[in-house]
Design the sequence.
């Protein structure tokens, strides 16, 4: 059995590679390897001769390079080739193949010197990291539909709170398309919403000219047929006709349907601004004038809604309505003319509760009150009074049911009173 000491004697002696000698001469070798090569050169004549040859080659190369540069400013490619060939020959004489013999490495070192290639790699890596960071910062992080609507509603509330006695003004382009061969129809819709006093005014511009829209349904249909049709569709689908681009209105419709699909995607506006689009597709079957698909687009910069489209199920096909915001301002009421809301029908007084002598009536029990409250809610629902009208269901001091609020017209007030007067309590 050969001992470890005997096996070490059988090993061939270690000699540094030519590359190690070059790095050692240049002072670029690691400290540990530097000491190892230096100690080896003290005892190895062969390696010392190789080192002297390398030093002579380098000296000859530099002298030749100096002469060539004096003659021509170009780089002495011929001298480089000769120098590399002599290094190859020297390495072959030592019995080891050189890494310079690899054609790929040789080509790379011809094109990029070692130091330059490392610097280039670091620069390219930094550029890639900076580019990825910029792309990440410029892109909009993905959000869910609920988060989309929550942020949009929060931005809307913040914009209104910053102005005292706010009046929200919007100008919208309302377009109507149809699956049947029909030209695009357009109306310009202007809206004033007095947030403090719950007042509303609208004006429309179409082929008939510019005019204020009356509160009467018949007059609206004659003055602005597209707008009157859209208002009926919004009310039938639990959406607020006074705030067509409102996220709360979109959420009300969203809560009333079964989903087929829904997604939030990044898009761009006509001017190139980044935006987010919420697209909701409802599952059938569909009733007439039911919204089967809706899309809401908000600016990514401030989460302000700028566009909404709805597809409506009609008897003769699907009809598409698109609302595009062209102007938006939150104004202070005192900056507007005093007549801005003057032509509106004066608000009717609150609907009084049925006046019956409390002392002559027995005190209602909780079951009777609950039954009466359900009947009142159902009566208001049948009249579509729960879709944005300023009505409130309360219990009076006597414990009885009362409906308080404002009616737009005297006729509307009579409708509500007639529907409620037959309900006890």
Sequence:
């Amino acid at each position: 059995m050969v001992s470890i000491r005997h096996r070490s004697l059988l090993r061939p002696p270690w000699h540094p590679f030519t590359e190690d000698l070059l790095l050692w001469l240049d002072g670029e070798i690691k400290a540990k390897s530097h000491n190892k090569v230096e100690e080896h050169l003290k005892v190895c004549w062969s390696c010392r001769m190789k080192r002297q040859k390398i030093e002579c080659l380098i000296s000859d190369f530099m002298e030749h390079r100096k002469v060539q540069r004096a003659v021509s400013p170009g780089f002495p490619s011929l001298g480089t080739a000769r120098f590399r060939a002599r290094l190859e020959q020297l390495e072959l004489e030592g019995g080891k193949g050189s890494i310079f013999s690899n054609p790929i490495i040789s080509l790379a070192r011809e094109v990029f010197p070692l130091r330059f290639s490392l610097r280039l790699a670091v620069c390219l890596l930094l550029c890639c990291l900076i580019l990825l960071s910029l792309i990440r910062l410029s892109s909009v992080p993905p959000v869910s539909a609920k988060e989309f609507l929550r942020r949009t509603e929060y931005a809307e509330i913040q914009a209104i709170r910053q102005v005292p006695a706010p009046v929200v003004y919007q100008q919208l382009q309302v377009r109507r398309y149809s699956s049947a061969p029909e030209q695009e129809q357009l109306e310009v819709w202007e809206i004033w919403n007095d947030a403090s006093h719950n007042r509303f005014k609208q004006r429309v511009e179409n082929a008939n000219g510019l005019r204020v829209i009356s509160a009467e349904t018949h007059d609206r249909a004659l003055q602005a047929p597209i707008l009157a049709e859209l208002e009926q569709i919004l009310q039938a689908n639990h959406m607020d006709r006074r705030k067509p681009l409102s996220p709360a209105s979109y959420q009300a419709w969203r809560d009333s349907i079964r989903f087929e699909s829904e997604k939030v995607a990044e898009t761009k506006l006509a001017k190139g601004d980044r935006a987010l689009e919420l697209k909701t597709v409802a599952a059938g079957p569909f009733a007439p004038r039911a919204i089967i698909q809706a899309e809401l687009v908000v600016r990514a910069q401030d989460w302000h809604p700028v566009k909404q489209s709805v597809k409506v199920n009609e008897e003769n096909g699907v009809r598409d309505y698109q609302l595009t915001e062209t102007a938006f301002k939150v104004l202070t009421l005192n900056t507007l003319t005093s007549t801005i809301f003057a032509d509106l029908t004066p608000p009717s007084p609150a609907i009084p509760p049925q006046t019956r002598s409390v002392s002559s009536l027995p005190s209602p029990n909780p079951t009777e009150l609950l039954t009466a409250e359900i009947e009142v809610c159902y009566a208001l629902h049948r009249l579509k009074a729960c879709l944005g009208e300023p009505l409130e269901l309360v219990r009076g001091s006597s414990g009885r049911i009362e409906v308080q609020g404002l009616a737009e017209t005297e006729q509307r007030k009579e409708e509500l009173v007639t529907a409620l007067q037959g309900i006890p309590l």
